[in-house]
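Proteins fold reproducibly. Look at a concrete instance:
___
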Amino acid sequence: MAPSSKAPVKRSASGDVANFLKKATKTPVLARGSKKGRLLFAMDATASRGPTWLQAMGIQTDMFKEASSVGGLDVQLVYYRGLMDFGASPWLDDAIQVASLMRSISVLGGPTQIERVLKHAVSESKRGKINAVVFIGDAVEEIPDQIMGAAGELGLRGVPVFVFHEGGIEPAGSIFKQVASLTRGAYSSFDASSPQQLRDLLKAVAVYAAGGRKALENYGRASGEAIQRLTYQLSRKN
């Protein structure tokens, strides 16, 4: 695929990546016997997402709060940015801790690392069941076949990927839709003018990961058309 305008830049000296990992390593790892749902939440933190970054932080925090009302959720935060910067937290069960870690990350120009995110999810799924993966991003700068290979592995392991595509532009949109299809997940696009839609959709995925299909169906009946479309995508593939 032809490279996009998101050219890599020098690594920032701000230390926010180091701080993120430092906080993460000090957080107690959850017991393997946890019965709660597990959600791997992955973010593209490259520079092109800068204009909506702060808005996204608030929306994502709402997602985790919603999950706690359904029975709780263990979350692992994953992000990429810069010149191959890649971070993953331990599994966390506290919405405040999750929000704090998210806010320690800032955007930095660099290439996408979607295949790496999906391969990391495969590795984590071998250690313990993952109920869902959420990925929020806006572009694809990698070889699509390699991304599809990793998505296929997740699909075989029964891990759905919910892709929330900022901007909805092509060719990234078609690639993200294939990832969702291969994993029996769902795809939705959003933009800066639709924060409430993204908020509602993220809450719906949290409900699904924490409480399963029945919880999502119940949530969907009390929600709008966007949630019902997401529920339909899942029911069509399972």
In short: The chain has one domain: 16-27+34-237. Residues 16-27+34-237 form a domain with the Rossmann fold fold (CATH 3.40.50.410).
